[in-house]
Design goal:
The structure is a single chain. This protein has 13 helices and six strands. It has 293 residues and is an alpha/beta fold. It has a domain at 92-292: Uracil-DNA Glycosylase, subunit E, CATH 3.40.470. Helix 4 runs parallel beside helix 9 (199-216). The N and C termini lie far apart (78 Å). The structure holds uracil. Residues 145-149, 152, 158-159, 163, 185, 266 line the site of uracil (URA).
Length: 293
């Protein structure tokens, strides 16, 4: 048997090209690493990435605005993160802190800052950016998806990849675009490898999206896909049964917002025969917006 020849730069380039073509977009190590057991990063170390604003917010934020809320001024605030090694899964304390931070945000910009400073969701530690929102916060229509994918994570904006391009076409079909609609996700950080967010992660992030909806106060809400519909419409029904039927999303302050669950653009890319169903749902949305404005 001959000795193994050394790996060259060109071998490595071929290997990387193979991984890329196979859809591998996360670099993992050979040996598993328990990230939860590692010391939590100091807030100062995380600030540049965690607080990296979405493109639209760069313009909106005045230069003097603080990038983080003063956690110590929140009444009875639990620690921003469980002590290192104390918990391996998100827990109720993090959800309670998320609720408190969401409730104390009185503007969208404050909410974005509170979310950027929040360390209670593990997804933040593998994501590159907070994906807060895109579009017009004064729009009559708000659409909520599930969670950012790779492209969204890189850009810090929701629905900018393939499914985003389809969403733009669906909006255009009813005469709208990102200047006349506001877009966000239930989960603002990309789950690694685009895995499904866990119920814990969803519960921790739920107060943020609920407050975001309350602050935008749209006339009509569209839930893109089952996870958004189930989380925000308090139902366990599947999206194929839910879609096409008006529901109501009720905010913490009691405002009832008509909500249309519809099929997620990523699902439509895989199942183009169902585009006609989404088209019908969007026509319903158009008619509702006409009736309410
Ligand atoms: N899918 C989603 O649910 N949200 C995005 O932002 C992108 C893809």
């Amino acid at each position: 048997m001959t000795a193994a020849s050394p790996i060259t730069r060109s071998d490595l380039a071929d290997l990387l090209a193979f991984y890329a073509s196979a859809g591998v977009d996360d670099a993992l190590e050979d040996a598993p690493v328990n990230r939860f057991a590692e010391a939590a990063p100091k807030p100062a170390e995380r600030t540049p990435m965690a607080a990296a604003p979405a493109r639209e917010n760069v313009q909106q934020q005045p230069p003097s605005a603080p990038s983080r809320p003063d956690m110590s001024r929140l009444p009875d605030a639990p620690p921003a993160r469980a002590p290192a090694g104390a918990a391996t899964v998100p827990d109720e304390a993090q959800a309670a802190l998320a609720r408190q931070l969401a409730a104390t945000a009185s503007t969208l910009e404050q909410l974005r800052q509170h979310m950027a400073a929040f360390d209670g969701c593990n997804l933040k530690f593998t994501a590159k950016n907070l994906v807060f929102a895109d579009g017009n916060p004064n729009a009559d229509l708000m659409l909520v998806g599930e969670a950012p994918g790779r492209d969204e994570d890189l850009e810090g904006l929701p629905f900018v990849g393939r499914s985003g391009r389809l969403l733009d076409r669906m909006l255009a079909a009813i005469g709208l675009d990102r200047t006349s609609a506001y877009i966000a996700n239930v989960i603002p950080w990309r789950p690694p490898g685009n895995r499904t967010p866990t119920p814990h992660e969803t519960e921790i992030c739920r107060p943020f999206i609920e407050r975001q909806i309350e602050l935008v106060n749209p006339k009509v809400l569209v839930n893109l896909g089952g996870p958004s519909a189930k989380t925000l419409l308090n139902t366990t029904e599947g999206i194929l049964r839910l879609r096409g039927n008006w529901r109501v999303h009720t905010t913490a302050s009691g405002t009832a917002i008509p909500a249309m669950p519809t099929l997620h653009p990523a699902y439509l890319l895989r199942t183009p025969a169902h585009k006609k169903l989404a088209w019908r749902d969007f026509l319903e949305v158009k008619a509702k917006l006409r009736a309410l404005t």
